[in-house]
Amino acid sequence: xxALLQRVCHARVEVAGxxxxxxxxxxxxxxxxxRGDTEVQGDKLLAKILKLRxxxxxxxxxxxxxxxxxxxxxxxxxxxxxxxxxxxxxxxGNRPSFTAAAAPDDGKRLYDHVVTQARALHPTVQTGVFAxxxxxxxxxxGPVTIPLRVPPGDGVPR
Length: 158
What we know:
The chain has one domain (2-144): D-tyrosyl-trna(Tyr) Deacylase, Chain: A, CATH 3.50.80. The chain has two helices and eight strands, in the order βββαβββαββ.
């Protein structure tokens, strides 16, 4: 399972012109399930996302996680958006292959699992709509953009 994290000042997702998810300061997380992934990969990835220290302290050092953004217990928002295109393989030509992405039913099941777990562990979780044509609007803060991956069959985020 893989994710692309973007530290944001604010972000929102629209489907057919309607806002379906919106956060203020926090993380926009583009999430992709790969073939062979299970809930174990989702849980490991979510744990890393919640604990990753990429928010600045007063000295402008990345010392705080989304769960403790200002060192005083303030929690940032999470906007979780499914994006199977993170599994793209463009090595074979000019049209990317997405065969490494989980099948749609598995992808939805794993995305829903991560969303459910995130809502149990974090107070502000918003989402996109799985398999919808979404427009994602964000103001990247920094910019800070971090890729994370827990390979299928593995439990270690990279």
